Amino acid sequence: MPINIRPVVSAGLAGCCTIFSVFGIVILLALGSLYGKHVEVLTGSTKDPKDPDHVSKLCYAAALIYGAFVIFCGLQMAVHRRYPRGVQL
Question: What's the predicted TM-score (pTM) here?
Answer without folding.
Answer: 0.82
